[in-house]
Amino acid sequence: MSTETERRDEVLSQSPVGFIDLRSDTVTRPTKAMRSAMAAAEVGDDVYGEDPTVNLLEASAAQIFGREAALFVPTGTMGNQIAIRLHTQPGQEIICESRAHIVDWEMAMAAAFSGCQFRAVAAERGIVTWKHIEPAIKRPTFNNAPTGLISLENSHNMAGGTVTPLAVFGEIWNGAHEMGIPLHLDGARIFNASVALNVPVAVLTSGFNTVMFCLSKGLCAPVGSMLVGSRKVIERGRMVRKALGGGMRQAGVLAAAGLIALEEMPKRLADDHANARYLAERLSGLPQIELDLLTVQTNIVIFGLKERGKAEELVLRLKQRGVLCGTVGRNSVRFVTHHDVDRAACEEAARIAVEEIGKL
Ligand SMILES: *Cc1c(COP(=O)(O)O)cnc(C)c1O
To answer: For ligand 1, what atom is nearest to the CA of residue 186?
Structure first.
């Protein structure tokens, strides 16, 4: 065997193809329709504003969210960090939930890029209410860093994909608007929340100044997220995106997939939610684990292991049996359902997980 063939076989043996991959909905591959649309996409230089497919995607996102404008960004992290930069001044605080993505998974960029610190509040099942936020707000004084932004997450990833209802947001929007504090939504999975609540995204997000959402998770696009807001804020966002190195050129090949993600894919998310529910119910009675079924509202299942420090071991055992999942800290495990894992695969994963958890 040539070394080249050996190398290829080695790479293939590491490839997750053939595994039941429940690590994240980010692992979804572009659909056939997306591949065709990408191949046929009309493109131009988007930094000059001349990519017709990107322009169409931005117009479509703005319309679906009932906003003046939208910006296509390479990642959700960049979308959130652009928003933080736009709304804050250095030396301010950002109020968010204690397990928020912007706190734990964005490389401390709120500090490094915008000069802000977090005032994190812990909320049961990740559902932040005005009662959590109001006492954490600080007005400008000579003693304290003032609140510059309130940033919320819906669905809440690390709380298990939990969903904040519209009425809870309504109270927060009223309170924050009265005090003149801007609001950002990390809506990486806002379409999952929208499907779970049966409320259109435009309604569910209407009180936020800006909303970031991902095309590349459960919606199956290969790359890309959107930031939506007023024309003025998005124009400034375009400059910040360039500053971060996010000015892409013939990005229409990506936007073509994004358009299908945005317009076609939300309607099938209910299947992912049903599969997550199925997995959770299969596991929930096991004496080795702690699973709060009330957190299983969308496409995420997080459960704790009663014997501490065993999460990594369980993930490895499942991997040996062809099921991929991830840890959350040292004691918890996360499964995420998505387009590329159907009910039959979830049944198989549940059967294997029940066996392996039983051996712990
Ligand atoms: C995935 C995710 C993001 C963005 O992640 P990227 O990998 O940068 O696209 C932001 N917020 C939440 C809650 C997420 O789950």
So the answer is: 11
Give dist(CA 123, CA 148) in Å, integer.
20
Ligand 1: centre distance to CA 105 (Å)? 8
Q: For 312-349, what is each residue's pLDDT tens digit?
A: 999 999 999 999 999 999 999 999 999 999 999 999 99
**Test site for ligand 1: of 23, 186, 227, most ligand atoms within 8 A of the Cβ:** 186
Cα 140 to ligand 1 centre (Å): 31
Q: What is the pTM of this model?
A: 0.95
Which CATH architecture does the domain made up of 4-27+267-358 adopt?
A: Alpha-Beta Complex (3.90)
Sort strands 326-328 and 332-336 into parallel, antiparallel or unpaired. antiparallel
Cβ neighbourhood burial of 86 (10 Å; 0-12, 13-18, 19+): buried
Assign a CATH topology to domain 32-266: Aspartate Aminotransferase; domain 2 (3.40.640)
Instruction: Tell me the domain boundaries of the chain.
Output: 4-27+267-358, 32-266
Cα of 327 from ligand 1 centre, angstroms:
16
